[in-house]
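User: What would this chain look like folded?
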Amino acid sequence: MIAVVNNLDLVVIGSDNHRILLSTRYSTPIELFTQLDGVLREWDVDILSVDAIADNTATTPTSHAPSTPLHSLAQLHDPFYLRQRYSREFEITANLDRTPAHLIAISPPSNSILLGLGHDDHLVFQIPKHARLDSLPRNARFMDHPLNPALLLAHIQIHDQGNARSSIRDAYSNGNWATFNSLVNIVNIGGSVGLDNKLFSFYYPSSETTLSGPLQGYYRYELGVSTNEFADLRANPRCIIESQFLTIKRYIDEFERAGLVDENTTVYLTGEPTQSGSLCSAIANILNRRIYLPHSTMGERSTHHTLTPLLGMGLYSWYKTLRPSTSLEETVRYRRKAYNHSITSPASTPPLTPLLTPQIGSLNTIHSKSNLTPVDEQFELPTITPTTVTFDQRYAFNTLTTLEFDNDPYIKPDKDMAVIYNALVAEHKRLEAVSVGCGRWRGT
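Assistant: Here's the prediction, encoded as structure tokens.
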């Protein structure tokens, strides 16, 4: 087994198909180390993947008596202490950075984009090492590709967007994600029927460097004019989703203008929102791209989605330690493919709670199935039992098609809706610039 510790997160990965056996985010270091102590005593852990110590190295052991309780990161870098306390040897490795670890956990094709939704939203592009970087967005961060030395990763982080979605849920959906998703489904594109009176909102709880400049606060626009509230309150959930992903579309367009992606580049979507059919459909339509939903984010509990980078850290440590004959990329794809055939079933409740409103878009696999639908609370799957059912039994989709990559299900964009969203990009750009100007005038 592989135990991965990153800040206050703990993930344990099994040897059999690298399934996640435990994933938890703890509130305090004491809680984390208490749980980890039990795991190291009772489970057959071979590899410890841990954060570097304060001096940013993972090689300097410290001296701790075996009787000293596990309470610090330094102890996890002390082979002597671990051997004496747990009566066994551990391979200790340093954690990979979260961004390349996130990519490893999914291992999408090199011509695709990784989009992770969570507390912050993350865009990860795979670009040639010789690419001109000065033509790309100024808030992009570049790093080596963990799987392909000929490529770089370009990472864009948009802060607090999950918080923004949650705030709108609390204010306009009674704190309930099912209500939020229903409003996204039933409200027209842009919150209105006509093309000349679309609604826009920009919500950045903390200061963010946008393509137009620094921006913080909540800005709404109706008929192209700033307003404190939309005339139809129900438009708020859909408008925040649309504006967030129009922003992401504009980032992708920047890379397309630089010749680094094209119209056929697909998006691999991870995060709790992958459990919402209405949200996934909206994202596919806004980006006008095929959206793949990797099984490793669908078949495991949604707490695992938040900790997906830790899965990548563990797999990377396993590969570096054991040096298997198959490549790391092939191993991860095999792991994902296994979820086609063995998806865990919920203990008592139906797999997902159906929407009360008509579905938008369709989710496709090689079998005939219906759309994914959202669950009651923040895309949280029910308690998992060891019982397994086939993928056909677990989900229902509705279009026969042949998948192009590892049998991952995907959503194709509605081309008519995509045309409408494409027409909104210029106004979105203009109003974002107006918001930046207003923010400067306010002194934010």
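Confidence is low (pLDDT under 50) at residues 296-303, 340-406. If you want, I can go into more detail on any region.
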